[in-house]
Amino acid sequence: MDDVAHPAEPAHPAHAPASDVLAHVGANLRRHRGAAGLSQAALAERSGVSRRTIIKLEAGEANISLSGLDRLAEALGVTFVDLVAAPAASHLDLHEVAWRGSSADSVGVLRASVPARQEAQLWVWTLGAGDRYDAQPDPDGWHEMVLVTEGSVRIEQEGGHTDLEAGQHSVCSSAQQYAYVNTGTTTARFARIVVS
């Protein structure tokens, strides 16, 4: 099974240069896989991500979902940030573009990460009018907090949806199918904190 990005969850779609999105994944994946003493085949078996995808990721040629990166990190015994950030970067001050949507105004930027039971991440997101981000479920125990700073965002979850305007927030489990949708006519901006 190939673990490539779902069309609505591209790691770097055609209009975004690969160097801009998940720029450090290939080298970090190779380094951490080597440190763990795992072959590409062994990492594929341990993570559930195909060997072909791992080969392409290490060559800088593949797209992968954010949840696929989570599975690789877990299999390697490292954090998501260890895979996506520049090796010398401080986890307290990151600026890693990890997602771009179909609109040029849509981007997910990882800004910081701190230890929690496993990890906590601070993201800033923008969604162009009408754009959406469809997420894959995180493992049990993961939650997220979203604060809309501009525009409006609909959070669609398995049990329904929540509409948020600037200044409003939502807290929910991310261990379920969910999506962010800009239902407005202008760019929406929000902060997202993911905690496990």
In short:
With 196 residues, the chain is α+β, with helices and mostly antiparallel strands. The chain contains 5 helices and 10 strands; from the N terminus they run αααααββββββββββ.
How would you characterize this protein structure?
- The relative contact order is 0.16.
- The strands form two sheets. A six-stranded antiparallel β-sheet has the order 1-2-3-10-5-8, with no helix packed on it.
- The chain has 196 residues and is of the alpha+beta class.
- The protein is built from five helices and ten strands, in the order αααααββββββββββ.
- It is globular, with a radius of gyration of 16 Å.
Q: What is the gyration radius calculated from CA atoms?
A: 16 Å
Distance between the termini: 27 Å
Q: Count of helical segments?
A: 5
How is the largest sheet built, in terms of strand order?
A: 1-2-3-10-5-8
Query: What is the helix fraction of residues, given as a range?
Result: 10-25%
**Morphology call:** globular
Overall number of strands: 10
